[in-house]
Write a structure and sequence with these properties.
alpha+beta, four-stranded antiparallel beta sheet, 20% helix
Amino acid sequence: SSPGGQGSLQRADLRSGQIRLVNVWPEATGGDIAPKDMRYRFPWTFPLVFSPHDPNVLFACGNHVWRSRDDGQNWEQISPDLTRNDPTKQAASGGPITWDTSGAETYCTLACFRESPHQAGVFWASSDDGLVHISRDGGASWQNVTPTDLPEWVYLQTIEPSPHDPATAYLAGTRYKLDDNTPYLYRTSDYGQSWTAITNGIPADDFVRVIRCDPTTPGLLFAGTETGLYVSQDDGASWQRWEKGLPVVPIYDLRVKGGALVAATHGRSFWVLDDLTPLREGVRGEWQDANAAHLFSPLDGVRVLPDLFADWLPTEGKVYSMASNATYIAGTDEETGQAVRTYLDSGQGAPRGAILYYTLPANSKISETVKLEIVNGSGQVIRSFGPKPDGWDKRDDAEKALEPGPWIPVRDGLNRFVWDLRETGALRIKGNKTGGEATKGPFVLPGEYTVRLTVGEASVSQPVRVEKDPRSPVSDADLVAQYDALVAVRAQLNTLYENVQSLRRVQVQVTGWKERLAGVGTDAASAGAKAADELLAKLAVVEDKLILPGEQKNVYGLLVRPRLNAKLATIVSNINSADGRPTTSSSALVAEYSGAINQQLGELNQILSEDVGEFNELVRGVDLPAVG
């Protein structure tokens, strides 16, 4: 709704906040003025299109086509009336008490206008009363190219010029207002001189509003009908209904953006098919055997960091997000171990990361031999994924924590897995619950990587590019500094955990020998038992400084003093909270904690080399096997 007469058209200046009315012909409307009595006719919603060849050229359509080269200051009429112009369809709407002057019931107007993406000045126009026109000379002349078998009064909502062939275009129309639910879909390959109906596979009562071409793959088409989405992989010769993940809903418009298909529905909001790669490669013949192992070309992954509070929110049950004010049900996918969110009051965007599609042959034993790896530019494997381990669900919580996933699905046929753009995280050791963000691994740097799928002895690879978040102003140098800092923390934590595992193996053995020595009863055995106590005490001091002793069966949170491993792991959240170079204080703390860790590791090394050696000598005197 807008003041200023019919054909509401507003030019908004987002800097000043001013809105200028630039209607093509702002003729006053009101009372019982009928569209047939107006000089020009504009419906409620009319075609408004910028030229794909010149962003300064704007087209607007009523029953004519107009062109402006100066943001609506001046309008040039470049067509005659391109409709049937039937006066019987142009009576005043509403009345006798209230007249409708909104334009919602103004007919004999243009419903769609498109300029060829191949050649400037080649125009297609379709009307709401069933006519199609083309101009190949910038609007100087127009030809009626309406399909000869098209009934009268079809609302031709969409005309889609092919992005692959300048002579090809597609047409979609409806006639349901005349109690005709027939789908009207046509294709021309000779600038409209002849048309072919292309509705095979679409039910006779499922009328069509929109048809779109995939911009990268000739022959791949999408159609939106009154009940859903249809896909053609043979340029409209046949159609298949898209069954999965989309409700039964009228689809009013479709748009292919990058590798995604976006559907605008009536009553169920927007839906997005986030990766068209399998369809595209199937049409191009790059994937022909669904029973053979195949790795599809991944779309670029974009480094979009997670919500800062994501780790604090529950991973199961209903969650009220602090950052987005959205409510969702949190859970875990049993097949992959990845977090799943089902939003209750909002939509959900595409997964963050690189979406990887692959097919596996129909072989029940193949799951044991499947591996998906991410390789960096130096040929180093930075992440490796396998299927969910057999018997994992029967393990206790401590054992599950050592292999929490994610795992790749290994179903026969098509599989989908999302790599979160992270490298391998810090080591996990049994009973330790203080790894936090460090166990997830650092995000990789923007650049080129390789995805490698191995099935048995055979491997297939595809390149994948990781892009920086386009909204982030961070420099490449700062990202490198951040990455290097996170890798250094990971290496320090891995060293700590490897030494803790060695320490605990010695603790177990020394405790066992202490029990054996207690049953000998000799002076030498007593001396050995005392030495065992002293050795265990020294090991306990080092362990207590490096990591919380024992197995952590509860979440201690703020009730337990953090050990060095937890202190260092905590800094990862500071460094990785946003794209940027680590703060000076974060770097200083990493150095401080690393120094303290290395000091304890030095003491541990001395204990293992000297004290354990002395203890072994005592054990030998009692004629018991030495510490290994």
